[in-house]
Specification:
With about 120 residues, the protein is of the alpha+beta class. It has three helices and four strands. It has one domain. The chain is about 30% helix and about 20% strand. The protein has a four-stranded antiparallel β-sheet, with helices on both faces. The longest helix is centred in the C-terminal third of the chain and has 21 residues. It is globular.
């Protein structure tokens, strides 16, 4: 019997709040205010020429939708994150549209690259 932990297969599942703040170039205070303002929102970022997104439901819920090359992974950071299917589909369509634009133009505004 194999005792492999599922987290061994996908390091994205272990994203931390610190990583998300780094991706978005936000301080802890900025990030906290953003995630508790009762206003669902998403912010896009570029890392290794791939466009990804951090979504908040505005009530402490946070989700990372990360492009890992051949597909996207979706992971909740923390205990929960509420999102309706319509919003998730809009985000997915925007990610595909922006990635197509990035691959043809080389840059998209107002996205920013993750500092190394």
């Amino acid at each position: 019997m194999n005792n492999t932990n599922l987290n061994d297969f996908d390091p994205i599942m272990n994203e931390s709040i610190d990583n998300l703040m780094h991706y978005l170039s936000m301080t802890e205070e900025e990030f906290h205010k953003w995630t508790i303002d009762f206003n669902p929102d998403c912010k896009f970022f570029i890392d290794d020429d791939l466009i990804s997104c951090v979504y908040t439901d505005g009530d402490e819920g946070v989700m990372l939708i990360k492009d890992v090359g051949e597909h996207h992974t979706i992971s909740v950071v923390g205990q929960y994150c509420d999102i309706n299917m319509k919003t998730l589909i809009k985000i997915a369509k925007k990610l595909v549209f922006m990635q197509d634009g990035l691959s043809t133009s080389g840059d998209i505004d107002p996205l920013f690259k993750v500092p190394k």
